[in-house]
Amino acid sequence: MAVNALGPYDFPSADRQENFGDDMLVHVLWANNMMFCSAACFRAPRAMPWEDFKAQLMDPWAASDPDYEPSAPKGWALDGKPFNPEPGQSLAELGVVHKGLITFEA
Amino acid sequence: MAKLSMKERYSLLTRDLDWTPTYVDPKDVYPYTRYEGIKIHDWDAWEDPFRLTIDSYCKYQAEKDKKLYAVIDGFAQGQGHLSVADARYFNSLKLFLQGVTPLEYAAHRHFAYLARHLDGPGARFAALCQSIDELRHCQTEIHTLSQFNKYYGGFHDWSRMHDRVWYLSVPKSFFDDGISAGPFEFLTAISFSFEYFLTNLLFVPFMSGASFNGDLATMTFGFSAQSDESRHMTLGLEVIKFMLEQDEGNVPIIQDWIDKWFWRGYRLLGLVAGMMDYMLPKKVMSWKEAFELYLEEQMLNGLFPDLEFYGVRPPRHVEQAIIEKEYVSHQVYWILYQFSFAAAFNTTVPTDEELDWLSASYPETFDRYYRPLWEKARRIQDGGGRFFFQGLPQLCQTCQIPMGFTEPGNPAEIAQRHSEYKGERFNFCSDGCQWIFDREPEKYVQAWLPVHQIYQGNCGGATVPEVLDWYGIEQGSDNLEYLTSPDKASWDEWHAPAALPGGGK
Question: What ipTM is given for this predicted complex?
C-alpha cells in the first residue's frame, strides 16, 4: 500500500546510510538485563574493529549498570542469529548492517 | 421583532451562509476532499448535534473564561502552589505543558484548515468551533500553568522543547502524522480515535490528578475544557457515522484508519500511563484500572458493538494493548527514569508506600519484574550514585519511543521488529508500529528521530551538554533526579517549620 497523495510522493529517508558517511548506526541490546530499558544506539565507523567497538562504545555504556563485567558478555547474536565476533574483524566484515542489532547476555 | 427559534437561527447563521459556486468547479474550491477515496454524496446529511451558532458559542466561552481566570488569579495570589500534595506533582504538569499544550495549538491550526476546506457548511462550522476551542485550550493551559514557572524548573521553553526534545518527538510526530494526512484521515485520527476513543485516558489522569493533588487551578482548567471536550467527543462519533453512512466503499478505508490511529494513540498514551502510576504523589487510579474502565468497558464493550452495524470491528492489535495493561506504565516510566538526565522534568524511585501500591495494583507483574529494578536503583542511589542509561537508546521508527516495550505477555523480553524498504532497515517496538510503517513506508522513512538526528550532528553538538543547551533544558534544575533537584530543595525550604521567637521549642 502506498501513501494517498494529491501529487508525486517521493522523499529520501532521513537516516539513509549516506547521511552518516563512513559510519553507521549500530544497536546493542543486553538481552537478559532489565536494568536497561532498551537497546543502545551507537554511531560507529564501518571499518571499526570489533575490539574497539566493544571497548570504546559498548563497555562504557554497559557499565551504567555497576554489576557489569567487560569479560562477562556471551551468547552474542547478530539480528537474532548467533555469531562469534573476532577482535580484529571490522563491523562491516562481521556483517553488521546500518541500524542492525547486536545482542548479548551476561 | 419576533425572536427566531434556535433551529432558525442555526439555519440562518450556518447552513444559509453557504452557496453553490457557479463560475468555478466545486472540485477546485474544495480540492482536498476527494483523493483519499472517501465518497460523500450528501453533505447536508451532516447533523450538528449542538446546533451551535457563533453568537451563542462566543457568549458561552466568554463566561467560562471569566470563571476560570478568577480561579487562576485567586490560586496564584494565595500561593496555591504551596498547597499541592508535593512538589513532585509538578512533573506531571511539565509533561502536560511540553507534550499536550502544543498539540492543542496544532489542532487549532488544522481545524481552521478544515473549516475552510470541507465541502459542507455544517461540517465547516463544527470545525470552526473546534478550531477556536483548541486555541482557547492552548491559551488557558499556558495561563494556568505559567504561574508555576516562577517557582519550579521545566516550565519555560516548552514550545521549543516540543520541537526538539526526544520524548516530545513522540506527541509531535503523532500529530504531524495526522496533519500531513488528508482531511478525512485527520478527522478519523483526531476527532474519532483521539477525541472520542482515547480521550478519557488522557484527560482523566491529568485533571483528576490535579484534583487529587490539590491543584485547584489546573482542575478548574479541566472543568472549563470539559464541556468543549464532550462536544468534540460527540463530533468525533458524528464524523465517523457520517462517513460510514455516506458510502459503503468508505468502510474499509475507515477501518484501516481506525486500526492505524488506535495504535498510534495508544502508544502515545504510554507517556500518560507512566505519568499516572508514578508522577502523581496521590494516586487517582492505576493505569490498568483506567484502561479497563475507559477502554475495555466503555469503548470495546460499549461503542464497538454499535459500530458493528456499519461493518466496523474493534481496532487491530487492541488485544496486545489489553495484555500490556499489566506492565506498560512500568516500562515507560523506567525509560523516563533512566533518561531523565535529558528530560525537562525530574524522576525518582517511588517511595515505599508507592511501591506497595504498585504491587497491589499490579499483582501479576510488579513484584516479579519491576520492584527488583527499583530496589537496585535505590541501592545505587544509597551508595551516592544515580542509575542513568549512559548512552542513547534505540528508537521505534513509528512511535519514536525508546524501544523498551516487550513481547506481548513477556515483560522480560524486549520486542524487536524490523522491515526493509528500498534496501534500508527500519526498527519497531511492536507489531502495531511495524504494521503502520509497512502500509505507508514512504511517509515514515522521513521521521525525524531524535537519536539519529543527534548522531547526524543536527542537535547542537556531539556531547550531552551541547544537546541539552540546544533543547533549551537548564542543566541541573530542569533535568536529573528529583531528590537532589532545586524543586525539592525549594519545597523543603518553603515548608520548613518556622523558627519560633526566642529559640523556644
Answer: 0.98
